[in-house]
Sequence to fold (128 residues):
Amino acid sequence: MRTMDLEAARRHHKALKQFFISHPGGAADLRALRRVLTLCDAAGAAIDDDYCREKLRLVSEYAAEMLGHGDPAKWGRDSLSGAEFLRQQVLNALELLASRLYSLEALRRAAQRKGAPTWTTRSSIAQI
Fold:
């Protein structure tokens, strides 16, 4: 049976978004990286959806580049530092994740109104 705890996924999403809004990045911070990876793992465990897992994977990878011992400057663009570019990429992935969570909730509510025990998305079938 697949896991679909949308409320827990939204809580983890909110914590990740708050972290990246407030964290400037640019310097190695392994404690912060560990927290981000833990939140991504928890969100992935809360909701079994391929699209959501892909967005959480992107968040993890960009966070590792931003907060690990690597050189975030290599990600720099004309008007953005590397750390800011990575932070924007993470926030974009989190925005797409939020949109997907909203869609999954809408599908679940529609299925409940019809009395259907399951609902289907392109990336998964979930038991309610």
Q: What stands out?
A: The longest helix spans residues 82-114. The helical segments are 6-22, 30-46, 50-67, 82-114. The chain has one domain: 6-127. The chain has a mean pLDDT of 85.
